[in-house]
Give the backbone structure.
Amino acid sequence: MTSEAFDCIVIGGGHAGAEAAWAASRLGAKTALVTISRETIAKMSCNPAIGGLAKGQIVREIDALGGLMGEAIDATGIQFRMLNRSKGPAVQSPRAQADKYEYKDWIRARLESVQGLSIVEGMAAEVLVENGTVCGVLLADGRKLSAAAVILTTGTFLRGILHCGDQQWPGGRLDEPASNELSDCLRRLGLTVGRLKTGTPARLAGDTIDYVRLERQDGDQPPVPFSFITDRIDRAQVPCWITYTNPQIHQLLRDNLYRAPLYSGQIQSIGPRYCPSIETKITRFSDKERHQVFLEPEDRAGTTIYCNGISTSVPKDVQEEMIRLMAGTENARIVHYAYAIEYDYCPATQLKINLETRGINGLFLAGQINGTSGYEEAAGQGLLAGINAVRKLKRQEPLVLGRDQAYLGVMIDDLLTREIDEPYRMFTSRAEYRLSLRSDNADQRLTPIGRQIGLVDERRWRRFEAKREMKERLRAWMKSTRTAGLSVWQRLQRPDDLTAGDWRTHPEVAAMELTDEAIEAVLIEARYEGYLGRQSRQIEDFRHLENIRLPEKLDYATVPHLRFEAKEKLSAHRPHNLGQAGRIGGITPADLMVLQIHLRKWYEQRMGEIHGESTK
Amino acid sequence: MESIDQTIAAVCTATPVEGTVARSIVRISGPQAFTIVGALCRLKESIAGRGITHTTLAMNGMSIDAMIYAFPAPHSYTGQDVAEIHLQVPLVIVHMILGQILRRCRQARPGEFTLRAYLSGRMDLTQAEAVAQIVAAGNRLQVEAARRMLAGRLSETLNSCREELLNLLGQIEAGLDFSTEDISPISMEQIVEHITVVQSRIECILDDSIQDQELIDLPSVGLAGLPNAGKSSLMNALLGRPRSLVSPTAETTRDVLEAEWILPHGRCILFDCAGLLNEHRPDDILATMAQRAAEEALRSATMVLFCVDGSKSDWKGDLERFRRISHAEMLVVLTQQDRWQQSAEQVVIRARRVFSRPCLVTSAKTGHGLDEVQNRVDEISLRWHWDSEGSDQLALTQRHRRSIQDALMALREARREILDKQDEVAAMLLRSAIEQLGRADSDRVDEQVLDRIFSRFCIGK
């Protein structure tokens, strides 16, 4: 059978796959997105929401680089809220409920509009590899696609097993088949495969809920957009609703705990601590009398409702009883039952810094397959994998974001340097340079990079430059305008200076015609200035080691004076640079010094060899 | 490991005795080297172009002669700007000067000057192996020193402070990262209270323990002898101030008392033990404990001054005791010369025959012979410094002190930021305090914080 030729193939059309396919094709690679059905591209298989604490920052970063997620949620969101409004700007994050049907349609339409991107409906069965290098993909129906780069974004599909009470059946998601062949193929290719667990709660029919009895939660007015190129969001918003579990429900769950696969031993793999099932919550925090449950509409009309807070693996009859016992949902009809899912993942310590596997040239992994959780985390990896696959094809240096540059950088670095034992989710506390990595300045941090690599279009770039220019003007004015011996800028650094607000009404400021976004950005800079200065010194030190590359071919076993443990750890992780090496558990500062000495020797010997060859 | 762009300093020599005074060199390397030395010596002009400068340093009211050598980059040992301060003063003063310098730069790690020399191309390739060996050896030394510190009371306190701060940070972070969850995070008042408690504990450490710790890294000289051999009086006389309770009743010194003794070329710890008892008295628990403490201290001492009452006619008991101690570095000090009946020569001859060791004649009352004792101890102490690379061990404690001061500073700022409702800034400062109090190997603070959040709060709506 003849094979269709592409530059890059993305397997899986979830949030990682969509960004990967978008980035690769926009950067000029002839790309195929292989998905079981084009209808499920960018499907929200769990929570119908985008953003949240730390995740909102990631969405802004994806957007700043030229990715899809920010624009998609701005276009299809039905309720927007800025979280942590009462706290400092570094920990504020946008979050929005999506109309999940509009969301996936929007992404699909955007992908369909890209020249050079083919959506191939089918199931991938095998990654084709020749001499350690990827050459294409074999589909289950026998079709062959060829490409020098393949990006796997398979989500929970690899040997997925769904659990609902004592029932268990293979599947990638509800009513979708699992991918066993591909999982076997990865093992054959020599990748280490582990197993993780996650779950999703029940969905209720919206018209069977008694909303009058529930607490109501509305969106912000006006809503703050995610994307730096969205002017404003005008569409009407819909509320979410809050109810609570109660002691009767807890008793019911306790009585039926033996029927929950998480407790009966039917599920062995580890689930996330930050997203426990309701049976885990009542067991671990038995003194808590009630747990919050957010009822979130999955579409604008509220046809189906997502029960945020009661994901579970108990059988259907217990789920029905639980819903019947909860205020406001006594008569609600369950449309989809909650289930738990176990799936294969490949520990990301097997990856290079560009998300390519070390063992197989040209094979990239992104999203849940790397052991992460969340649409945003997946999308971010997808975007970087897409960018780096193309950069590899074009023989360009990989795009590497540092821990000091982006949450995306923190995430990739964490994945590469630490062993995970639960699905990895981003938290703002993971970022040591959190004050610098804010949702408000993601564009300042990343849009120039996106522009340089070719993913930021003219429109976004012009907008970015305009904002930058406004900020510069305002900053200059604030620093040069003084009242009572202090500049406006200085006053802004004192949280208790009541006169600091007056400048907004100053005629000179009004004449500058600034956007709120630009004003806000400058205010935050002023507020954090002292600490940002201190942090930037820390970052300089951090950068020094990040900039010392470790050669891919370096044989750690032969480095003299390196401790045995260090040799083992470094050989297993093969860090990209000295900084990363230092973050691997068990590596000491002295190991780094020894390594640094050897490194220079290594390079000098190499130079000598190359020089010797060329003069022969 | 930090950047090579940072300025580093260390005492890098203790050259052998020239005449009677040791020469020490404090070396500073990095972009700030000249500025730091200039400020230290209050020089108006930069030392950069001057080669050698003869100047005086003001230190705690003393005027200290110093030669400053300036080696501008790249023509220096490390290839960076290097300043050297050459001093002919006791080591204790050298370390005070280093302490001043370390306010503006950081302590060099073992082998770090050499590493820089290598990295800047000042050493050739064949020397690489040797350098790596130095670094690896330096690391072992540090590990050994760190191990000793970690076993101590100081590290216990520091670890418990660190634990407490981790718990606190966990609660603050829960309020930042999980504010949408149904959890009740810690109040501002509680945070401030916690910080204040840890702050005062650390302040106590700085006041006491660090000094204890520094003292451990000095040579120690133990006073031994039978009860009422005049040890306490001798100690007071040597130090020039009363340290232990002295009385004519035997066995007035119960505990091991110690004090810092400033010698002509350094410092040491002089300690005075409980009188060593000849008869075993199992009923007197206090006496048994005192004896055990005394033996413990003497065993680990650098040197023992064995005190013998010269006015006694029979030293049988003294000799028995003397033999049981059998320390390699033991000096017999004949005390209370002011009360002797015989001439000093006669007593010394008799004592030499009995103890077969050098014997010195002293009187705490008149001060006779005290200088001689001091000079002998000074000699041994200097040898100890060179033998044991004492400066490296001191350096470790300097570094610790610096870290603890930084941690304290971060806590003070964190407290202020909490009151200003800037929890995210306070969290950054607490994190830096935790890192300062932590060990050299990089424990991942974020994971530890998350562990605490998940074990305390029900997260996951």
